[in-house]
UniProtKB/TrEMBL annotation:
The keyword RNA-binding does not apply. It comes from the Bacteria. GO terms for molecular function: serine-type D-Ala-D-Ala carboxypeptidase activity. InterPro entries: Beta-lactam/transpept-like, Peptidase_S13. It comes from Streptomyces peucetius. This is D-alanyl-D-alanine carboxypeptidase/D-alanyl-D-alanine-endopeptidase. It holds the Pfam family Peptidase_S13. Its EC number is 3.4.16.4. Belongs to the peptidase S13 family. It is an enzyme of class 3 (hydrolase). Residues 39-78 are annotated as: Disordered. The keyword Protease applies. SUPFAM superfamilies: beta-lactamase/transpeptidase-like.
Length: 490
């Protein structure tokens, strides 16, 4: 692997805890989580932009663009985009029947040597689904991180936008032991793990488990100040290490992790990751419990007992928000987690192979062109992935379709040119497309891609995908891709 490649790049099938009954036994009412469930829209403003999730949360994705000086800029909600998706119309100018001369406009730009010998392109009208331009559009190519669009569509189809991923603490009355159970939340951070520790400590202090006869149990594990802590990350199966190998852009895939396995959670982007994210999460959880008066000793791995009941739980944000964060920041850890969550929801094993089968099956449900495709992983780091430009634009069309509102977070999560995520520094203030192009980037050594939406003259919303392989340098390929997307604006 080259230095360049190293640097670039509902219902979970957890053990059935019967939360309602378990809470009655333990005497707890579990809180619902950090935020209320919400859809992908909020008065026309993207939640990811409003909440600044990206700005205040560590990003797990690879760095997709050359270094550029940072400049403060708010992330816009492009009114024409919302209009084209069915919101109140504000465009009064007469809209053209179709963008004219696309072959004459895009052909020369596609011939840029920075895009390698045979780039692929597809442009469609997202309102009608009509293809406006195609060049090798059906050719399967290495998509890099643009495959995350497919991962997002599969997860939203299988789980729904309101699904939340749990992290749970359970106990067997009288056993003197609690178990931290990972549900696959790759967004779990120290703050939310602290909430779980607080709820666990309160449950241990204030509640006593009942025996089968309704009397207090002989051994009161919950009133103890020292208990044993074990952790259960058995939800996922198969190899944890991504085929790309140890990499700062992705941790070993685990159903239990905190801060995406970063040894220093204050870092963002590429960072040194723990080789054992589950063990590290349990260690941090033990520290957080100790700060609250509960001593646990060294945590050990182990499966939760079948008769364990829940003590406390925290939930991820709704899947709509998780998808938005994953796409905006190109987060590899979240992408792999969503692929496995899709596998669990559809009865497949939560492994790389099981996730591939599950993602493929969900995309078939959407009646998408899958000839020659391959989803060897959910993040796009695997060079065995194959996706066509036609598939990517078809995915965008499904996301814009009023018949599939569950897929709308795919569009709202795309980075905004010149403003947010992996496109923040890809457009200057005066570039065509700034604020009007929203797209998912893709970068590996010799591979560059861009797929998203653009507001064309008259407020018309187009979907596009440009895939290039054999590119000499991202410093040549990325500007060439940006010019292609920008040309659709003018």
């Amino acid at each position: 692997m080259s230095d360049r490649e190293r640097g670039w790049c509902e219902v979970p099938m957890v053990r059935t805890w019967q939360l309602a009954a378990g809470a009655a036994v333990v005497g707890l009412t579990l809180a619902a989580g950090a935020v209320a469930a919400a859809g992908p829209w909020d008065s026309g403003q993207r939640k990811a932009e409003r909440d600044r999730v990206v700005a205040h949360s560590p990003a797990g994705g690879a760095h997709h663009e050359p270094s550029a000086p940072k400049r403060p800029a708010p992330a816009p909600s492009a009114v024409p985009v919302l209009t084209a998706l069915g919101g109140p119309r504000t465009v009064t100018a007469k809209e053209p029947a179709a963008p004219g001369g696309l072959p004459e406009i895009l052909g020369p730009l596609l011939a840029d040597p920075g895009l390698g010998p045979a780039p692929a392109a597809c442009v469609i009208d997202l309102t009608t689904g009509e293809r406006l331009y195609g060049e090798r559009a059906e050719t399967p190519m290495v998509p890099a991180s643009t495959v995350k669009i497919a991962t997002a569509a599969a997860a939203l189809t299988a789980l729904g936008p309101h699904h939340r991923i749990p992290t749970t603490v359970v106990a067997v009355p009288g056993a003197g032991r609690i178990t931290l159970v990972g549900g696959g939340d790759a967004t779990l951070d120290r703050a939310r793990l602290g909430e779980l520790a607080e709820r666990t400590a309160r449950a241990l202090r204030e509640n006593r488990p009942a025996a089968d006869d309704g009397e207090p149990a002989a051994e009161d594990v919950q009133s103890a100040t020292k208990i044993r802590l074990q952790y259960d990350a058995s939800l996922y199966q198969g190899p944890a290490q991504h085929p790309v190998g140890p990499n700062g852009n992705i941790a070993p895939v685990s159903a239990l992790m905190v801060g995406q396995g970063r040894l220093d959670e204050r870092t963002t982007g590429a960072a040194t990751r723990s080789a054992d994210p589950a063990g590290e999460a349990a260690r941090v959880f033990g520290q957080l419990l100790a700060e609250r008066g509960v001593r646990t000793g060294t945590p050990v791995p182990g499966r939760a007992a079948a008769d364990a009941v829940p003590l406390a739980q925290v939930l991820s944000r709704p899947l709509s928000s998780v998808v938005e964060r994953m796409l905006t920041t190109s987060d590899n850890d979240i992408a792999e987690a969503l692929a496995r969550q899709t596998a669990l929801a559809t009865g497949e094993k939560a492994s790389f192979a099981g996730a591939e089968r599950a993602v493929t099956r969900q995309l078939k449900r959407l009646q998408l062109p899958l000839t020659g495709t391959r989803f060897a992983d959910g993040s796009g780091l695997n060079r065995r992935d194959r996706v066509s430009a036609a598939l990517l634009t078809s995915l965008l069309a499904r996301a814009a379709d009023a018949a599939h509102p569950e897929l709308r977070p795919i569009l709202t999560g795309l980075p905004v040119a010149g403003f947010s995520g992996t496109l923040e520094h890809r457009w200057s203030d005066t570039s065509a497309g700034t604020g009007l192009v929203r797209a998912k980037t893709g970068t590996l050594t010799g591979i560059n891609a861009l797929a998203g939406t653009v507001v064309a003259p008259g407020g018309r919303l187009l979907g596009f995908a440009f895939l290039a392989s054999g590119t000499p340098s991202p410093y040549d390929a990325q500007p060439a891709l940006d010019r292609l997307a920008g040309a659709l604006v003018s």
